[in-house]
Fold:
Amino acid sequence: MQERIYLLQPENNTFMLTAHDNGERRSTHGFLKMVVAQKPEVRVLLDVGAQMLELQNLELAEAWLKLSPDTLAASYSDEDGELAVVTRGGTTQLLLSLPFAQQLDHCVVYLDGAHTRAPTSSSLSDSELQLRWDRRSTKINADA
Structure:
């Protein structure tokens, strides 16, 4: 329930078209560049409509981390559906086994369409949320 409250905050009520002016879909890398350029900074990306299919979750987390020089780590859903973290040095571990579990404000967080549940940390309350929603999506799965 706490996640829903954070999702409904006014600062998370931002919409932008992600296609190019000619209607062509942006690549995942192009989309990430657009996300990184946003002010205030986007720290959480929920790919509700499973639109970013060009990269595996780890690859996307690494790409976002590479574009975000002030960020220490990126969290993502691993192949087993567990929240994992990749650090700037390339180390990957489960989120709960690292100090970042209590310091998500030092991370960016990517959750794919199959794992669009917000992390249960109050440290995300001040984070900007980027939601990429497919027109066919009918709900956000934010149940704990």
User: Anything to note?
Assistant: The CA atoms of residues 16 and 132 lie 9 Å apart.
